Amino acid sequence: MLSRRHIIAVAALAGFTGSAAAGEWPEKPVRIIFPYAAGSTGDATARLIARRLSDGLGQPFIVENRVGANGVIGTDAVARSAPDGYTLLWAVTPQIAIAPVMTKVPYDAREFVPITAVSTNRFALLVNAQVPVRTVPEFIEYVRTQPKGFTYAEGGAGSITHLSMVLFLNRAGLKGMNVSYKGTQPALTDVVAGHLPAMFALFGDALSQAENGAIRLLAVSSEQRAAQAPNVPTIAESGFPGFKTTSWWGLMAPAGTPKIIVDRIAAEIGSATRDPKIVEQLTAFGVDPIGNSPAEFAAMVRADIELWARAIKLAGLRAN
Fold first, then answer.
1. Is residue 197 packed enough to be buried (19+ CB in 10 Å), middle (13-18) or exposed (0-12)?
2. Residue 71 DSSP one-character state
3. To the nearest whole percent, how much of the chain has pLDDT over 90?
């Protein structure tokens, strides 16, 4: 029996006219489905890129917030869309590389063709300002010496903030108990208030709190230090070579979308992420511009699926 993605792809090839092959796409507005509510940094980035695509390709690119089931509803809506280049997904790591591994979702990662990773997001290992540690080695000693055990905040079971701590504690030979929140922001709020001592948080979210003195950034989870906080080391250079947990924001299309359309969008975003004005805005959001090729993005996705499957197993969460 053919899978849904094969049926969609075959239908697209059968019914698709020569217009895209002739380079006439887009001939009408294009929707970019953002699977969360408006107002976040990811939403702002999607709208920034949509404006650039509108300018470069001559048709409106409209960001549509399709909220529900922690991003699953919007993601599935794109999987079910016609692969004609007029419905795209603002893809985020959890919906593509984590949710399908951890639980049953109505779509498969193979029902999307990667176009380009727009940016990557690092995470920060942080503590409340009253916790008496300033480095990763001091943090490890702090965790080991807690008489009642170490408890940390995270933005939801199976979130990257959760799984990053799981991977770090495992690498350091430590154990901890997670307290789950409905999102990173409420988790960070409780760490700021001193209700819990530590967590991994999206770097951009943590930076302002660190500048206010409410928390202390011990290290970042990316391969390179952040330009916005060059004095904060990476976890890799703090005694854990090779440690890396990042997330990405990118564009994907339904499987079967013609390659000429995929390549045209990727080229336009590649140009955008080299534009100094766009780079400045993305950097202000706390993210690193990428704008890579479809093949490079696909390789990133494969590597992340493997990484997060391991973390899910370590966390004891249900995996398919």
1. buried
2. G
3. 80
Q: How many CA atoms lie within 13 A of 295 on its CB side?
A: 0
Look at phi and psi of residue 183 and say left if phi exceeds 0, alpha if psi is from -120 to 50, else beta: left
pLDDT for the residue numbered 4: 53
Q: What is the structure's pLDDT at 74? A: 95
Question: Hey, is 181 helix, strand or coil?
Answer: coil
Q: Domains in the chain, ordered, with CATH?
A: 4-121+246-315 (3.40.190.150), 122-238 (3.40.190.10)
The answer to whether the Cα torsion of 284, 200, 35, 310 is positive or negative is positive
Answer whether 157's CB lies under 8 Å from 182's CB: no
Total-model pTM: 0.85
Give the whole-angstrom CA distance, residue 270 versus residue 62.
Answer: 19
State the Cα–Cα distance between residues 43 and 282, nearest whole angstrom: 12
Mapped onto helix, strand or coil, the DSSP state of residue 54 is: helix
Residue 257: name the closest of 81, 95, 117, 118 by CA. Answer: 81
Instruction: Please determine, for residue 293, whether its predicted confidence score (pLDDT) is greater than 60.
Output: yes
Q: Does the N-terminal peptide bond of residue 106 adopt cis geometry, omega within 30 degrees of 0?
A: no
pLDDT of amino acid 286: 81
- Tens digit of each residue's pLDDT (9 = 90 or more) over 236-267: 999 999 999 999 999 999 999 999 999 999 99
CB 149 within 8 A of CB 177: yes
For residues 179 and 174, give the distance between their C-alpha atoms in angstroms, rounded to a whole number: 16
Q: At what angle do helices 259-272 and 41-57 cross, to 10 degrees?
A: 110
